[in-house]
């Protein structure tokens, strides 16, 4: 059964009636620009074809009920109980339900509307969870799109991405940036979204993988990570410390030419965190230019340099991700890097179509030789963002 059909079937099973419509939103892979989003910098993600689907019908009684194929039962709350205290009380609901309820809360807060109809929502997804492909942005995006239309909210897609990030930061408690939500809301077929995270202005950048005979391969290491705990927040704090020491609002305001001065001002670890962000922002700009002027075969070195910077300066890679990248490059990939927040999750490799099988075998063998669990390897296609489907 497709995830769309599963969402409709679950709706009937848990709520005993028919939905009025279904919406969906995609996960994402990030081509380049990692941990730059919360530093007001540049990112270049694209939506993938894996999506979270939601079936919805309104209710008369101001109650919101959510159900998911991941979990038995139904989580139920009066909408009036969400605002303003939901984040403080998030521990009262199971973790997955904090995403949709958090979005409902964030949309109430964003619009100031208190007259909203109750809703029943049933979710099903084919976005791999914990793979660094933003299953969380997909559930947030599907919820935001469905609720905005049902509640006839006067909001645009950027507002919906903002509501998703607010839910993630405050209702889930993960101190992330806005890249994933923007990619999920604004994705386009065969293109990446070049996003300036300070202004939230976007440009569509054609990727041209298919005409160049290239495939984008995802290597899910199976190493699970959570951005609500530990390393992600520590990296963010280091970046904020670096910006404060340099006297700038965000590391976006630091250029490669400023790095010698930065080095003199801070300890070595903070400096290396700063250097990753500053050089990564430049690599995003260089990648956009290379894609536009020379096409996707020209971006390999930038992807590889990005990975090295995350491994050595930002220190968010893990041995499985390094192995995935090294084995991909040895098997002839144009470029490869870990994607997403790090500490586990997935790597991406850009490779000629006829070499996908060879790369898959090479990475699988390298994992086995290192004693790692077998990775899950599949190709993805840059795809369109959140939408109503039926
Ligand atoms: C996670 C976060 C994003 C971004 C990436 C790292 O995916 O959700 O906001 O910070 O990590 O680039």
Short description, anyone?
By secondary structure, this protein is of the alpha+beta class. The chain is built from 11 helices and 13 strands.
Q: What do these coordinates show?
A:
This protein is an alpha+beta fold and 390 residues long. It has a domain at 3-205: 2-Layer Sandwich (Ribosomal Protein S5, domain 2). The chain has a six-stranded mixed sheet. It is globular, with a radius of gyration of 21 Å. The mean pLDDT is 97. It is built from eleven helices and 13 strands. The site of alpha-D-galactopyranose has 13 residues, from helix 5. Alpha-D-galactopyranose binds at residues 30, 34-35, 37-38, 134, 176-177, 179-180, 227, 340-341.
Strand % is 15-25%
Q: How many beta-strand elements? A: 13
Tally of separate helices? 11
In this entry the ligands are:
alpha-D-galactopyranose
The H-and-E topology, N to C, reads as HEEEEEHEHHHEEEHHHHHEEHEE
* pLDDT averaged over residues: 97
Known CATH architecture of the domain at 3-205: 2-Layer Sandwich
Provide the gyration radius in Å.
21 Å
- Going across the major beta sheet, what is the strand order? 5-4-6-3-1-13
Stretches where pLDDT is under 50 for at least 5 consecutive residues are none
The first-level CATH class name of the domain at 3-205: Alpha Beta
Structural class comes to: alpha+beta
Largest sheet: 6 strands, mixed
> What is the overall silhouette?
globular
Helical content (DSSP H or I, runs of 4+): 40-55%
User: Which fold does the CATH topology of the domain at 3-205 refer to?
Assistant: Ribosomal Protein S5, domain 2
- Taking the alpha carbons of the first and last residues, their distance comes to 17 Å
């Amino acid at each position: 059964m497709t995830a769309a059909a599963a969402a409709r079937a679950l709706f009937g099973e848990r709520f005993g009636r028919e939905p009025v419509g279904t919406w969906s939103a995609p996960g994402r892979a990030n081509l380049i620009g990692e941990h730059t989003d919360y530093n007001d910098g540049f990112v270049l993600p694209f939506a993938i074809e894996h999506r979270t689907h939601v079936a919805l019908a309104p209710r008369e009684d101001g109650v919101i009920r959510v159900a998911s194929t991941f979990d038995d039962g139904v989580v139920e709350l009066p909408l009036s109980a969400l605002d303003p205290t939901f984040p403080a009380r998030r521990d009262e609901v199971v973790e997955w339900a904090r995403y949709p309820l958090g979005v409902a809360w964030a949309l109430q807060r964003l619009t100031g509307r208190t007259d909203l109809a109750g809703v029943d929502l049933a979710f099903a997804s084919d976005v791999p969870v914990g793979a660094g492909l933003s299953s969380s942005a997909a559930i947030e995006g599907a919820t935001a799109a469905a609720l905005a239309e049902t509640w006839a909210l006067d909001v645009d897609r950027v507002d919906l991405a903002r509501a998703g990030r607010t839910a993630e930061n405050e209702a889930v408690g993960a101190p992330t940036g806005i890249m994933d939500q923007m990619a999920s809301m604004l994705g386009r077929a065969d293109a990446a979204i070049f996003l300036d995270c300070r202004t939230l202005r976007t440009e569509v950048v054609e990727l041209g993988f298919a005409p160049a005979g290239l495939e984008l391969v995802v290597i899910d290491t199976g190493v699970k990570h959570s951005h609500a705990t530990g390393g992600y927040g520590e990296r963010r704090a280091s970046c904020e410390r670096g910006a404060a020491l340099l006297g700038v609002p965000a590391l976006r305001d630091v250029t490669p030419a400023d790095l010698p001065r930065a080095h003199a001002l801070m300890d070595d670890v903070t400096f290396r965190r700063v250097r990753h962000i500053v050089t990564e922002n430049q690599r995003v700009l260089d990648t956009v230019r290379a894609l536009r002027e020379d096409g996707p075969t020209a971006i390999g070195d930038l992807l590889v340099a990005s990975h090295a910077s995350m491994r050595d300066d930002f220190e968010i890679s893990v041995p499985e991700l390094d192995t995935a990248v090294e084995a991909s490059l040895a098997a002839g990939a144009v470029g490869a890097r870990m994607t997403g927040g790090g500490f586990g999750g997935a790597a991406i490799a850009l490779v000629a179509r006829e070499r996908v099988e060879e790369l898959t075998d090479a990475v699988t063998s390298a994992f086995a030789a290192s004693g790692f669990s077998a990775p899950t390897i599949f190709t993805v296609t840059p795809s369109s963002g959140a939408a109503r489907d039926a």
